[in-house]
């Protein structure tokens, strides 16, 4: 990466960033994309971890159903974690136009 500076001694910024981490809004809340990735990671991670635990218990005890119970428990646990972290709330995240919250208000204007 280049260390070139502009005339005031500042490094040039890349388009779309405002000094913080890419993809994070200025008010400190993650945008919709980052929240979606986090929810996906919690759920898929829970399914993988608890399925592996269930698979190990199935091999240990000679059963065949604990892996399925582990996958369901992992999905529920991942959703619970994402809900507790406030990632699945129905509040305004990005944009603020409530596009997905109900019918169009075009008739009222």
Structure description:
There is one protein chain. By secondary structure, the chain is mostly helical. Helix content is 45%, strand content 0%. It is built from 2 helices and no strands. The chain has helices spanning 32-61, 66-84. It is elongated and about 70 Å long. Mean pLDDT is 74; it is low at 14-24.
Which geometry do the CA atoms define?
elongated
Q: Main sheet? A: none
End-to-end span in angstroms? 51 Å
Structural class: mainly alpha
Radius of gyration, taken over Cα atoms and rounded to an integer in Å? 22 Å
**Count of helices?**
2
* Order of secondary-structure elements: HH
Number of strands: 0
**How is the quaternary structure best described?**
single chain
β-strand percent reads: under 5%
Percent of residues in helical segments? Answer: 40-55%
